[in-house]
Amino acid sequence: MATSANSMIGRSVNKRYRIEGLLGQGGMSAVYLATDVNLQRQVAIKLIHSHLAHDEDFLRRFRQEAQAVAQLNHNNIYHVHDFDFDGTYYYMVMEYVRGQTLDQHLARFAESGRRLTIASTVKVMAEICDAVDYAHRRGMIHRDLKPSNVMIAEKGRPILMDFGIAKLLGQQVHTSAGTTVGTAAYMSPEQAKSEAIDHRSDIYSLGVILYEMITNKRPFAGETAMSVMYKHVNEPPPQLAEIDPTRPEALETIVQKALAKRPEDRYQTAGAMAAALRAVPVDQPSQIRSAVGPGVPPVPTPAPIKPRRSIWKAALALGTVGLLFVAILAGGAYYYLNSGSLPLAVGMVPVQGGNYQLGQGASNSETYAASRTVRLDDFWIDQYEVTNADYAQYVAEEDGELPASWNGAAVPAGRLLIVIGGDGSFLRAARLAAPYGVPLFCINMGRLGFLSEVQPEDWQSRLTAFLEGKHWLEQRLMLQAFLRRGEEVQGPLVALNDVVVSRGSQARVLRLQLFSDGDFVTRYVADGVIAATPTGSTAYALAAGGPILPPRLLNYLIVPVAAHLSFDRALVFNEDTVASIRVFTDHEATLTADGQDSVALKNGDEVVIKQYEHMSSFVRLGNPGYFYRRLMERLRFGLDAGPDGEG
Description:
By secondary structure, the protein is an alpha+beta fold.
């Protein structure tokens, strides 16, 4: 670029994407953290350097990456939101993934003399194989699989990145004949020899990654890229047993098969490799260790990790909504969290499971605890001292459960978001807080306030009750919607209430088709269709017809609006069902989420609706059966019911 990478910070691209910071850069492009000012969400934006703006071959490759990934919709593959030229920069807007790359994670372990647990290796590698298999089944070969192209997101979820040199089967590849494309350390033999490749070349690269995850070393090393490529072609891969004889034989078999020189001797699909990984036994016998309380064997301390991004910035985006954060410092001792198969964790130290001898103190002392042996699975412990609030937040972010004896256990995140406003403010706050696992304490200043049970006149007594632990958390389902237009995918739009496909200002109906998990369900000739969560079923199902669902139910409704000579009944979908609505219209139509985010629809568009990965959480202070009684009161009188000791 003509300007330095850091000089872009604070600028806007195409009057929509505000650059917040530099995430990384290379010889061809720079990747920034940005804010999409239209949808108010964080994204990653890749800008190609200005000296490549007139390189037609490079631009074709850049465009190919955007088009290729836009065809993919997988939990372990990053999403592309936009691709364009704003008159100065060619750019691609992508999902922003918080975390670190797999090679960074492996380097941190290597520096401290440790290796990933077998359970972590198998879990992460199997998910990477799933993503590669998904791409292969859609005719795409990655060609540059390596740890630096895998992000480890929160909760240990691997995200496959950078399809910049991907090859679409049956499509012309914009590289010269005889050109070697890829990274030498992870190249298949046929790739190193610049021969024709198919999807099995990626399987070889997966084998190299697996070998490195197990051993902290690559199977082939050399002083030059050419020497490494020579070894890929001519030398057998080292045996795992030569480095670590304790690794299961099943892993040795998988590595050797994936690294076979001939493609026909490898796994024929990445899915088959994933299945083999999941069959590896991960429970290994371990010696008895002695520990007092939660003591652990000494391990080297990794480099300090930057703290997670504060939710304060997200909270400020609420504008006029009043917000307060209350830190809840719960009492009690340290508790062990059974983590099962360990995900990769940032800032944590793994403790190998086994038999631990517990007990301390003389028999006549106040601290006496009888000696006993307990069996623990592998688990993580923070590398630094942890407060009760920190521990509670970690449990919330890992979707775990605090022990029932925990004082104030109903606030797992150790934080509380107090929202003052009406239902619209509560909806907006829920969308911002859900990814952080922060519960909402809603004080109603609106007319109805279906989402709140706290009124302005009693908020102090209700907050006191909350601080005394006299509360529970109500978890509510949320939805996300994606717009698929040809090969382009936009989204997600996130909703606690509803996702609505509706006609515009013209009084003309839409023709719509509904699909459930890809299977055709019905056609609508209607003013629109509503996908309503149990939260949204209250108002919209009353207006358009259909049941009112209890707020904690994990289902959602598909409700047609003013259906004309077509199916007019509400349908109830399981939370894991993916609904698709295809739009056929020659006039204005819109897609909205919670009545706040809106996108114009065109003829042939497809709206894909599915469960959002996070739940919204509301503090409740009364009987769990409050919902229908309070609903009837507010619908009957059209005003706030006020506190009565039951809701």
